[in-house]
Sequence to fold (136 residues):
Amino acid sequence: MLSTFKPSSIKLSSIKAWARNLKRDSVALYLAARDPRAPWCAKALAIAIAAYVLSPIDLIPDFIPVLGYLDDLILLPLGIWLAIALVPDEVMAECRAKAAAVLQRPISRAGMIAIVVLWIAGALALAWAAFRCWPR
Fold:
């Protein structure tokens, strides 16, 4: 007898935990790629994954419904998993501990607000200068 899939059986908390672990492992992989004990193939794969994530060109463009995000949902986690599998366990454990510490740093909301205010002030100053200097 086939088991039936119920969307309610997937808990939101388990998805959040998976996403948190993926984020931690991504940072840990970044740290592992700089560790001299990591093999060159893991470093090369980590660089390729980072380049793909930061590249403006996707394998499948995101504007294509459903398929556009398929590469992001399948290829990237698989690439991260493969790169982690290539890193020795003791190196990965150290990097995961460092990554968890990095991700738990406090976030300064006041600092964020100050930066946003500075960007807005700069944009307004640029607009005012352009308006004043624009020939009429």
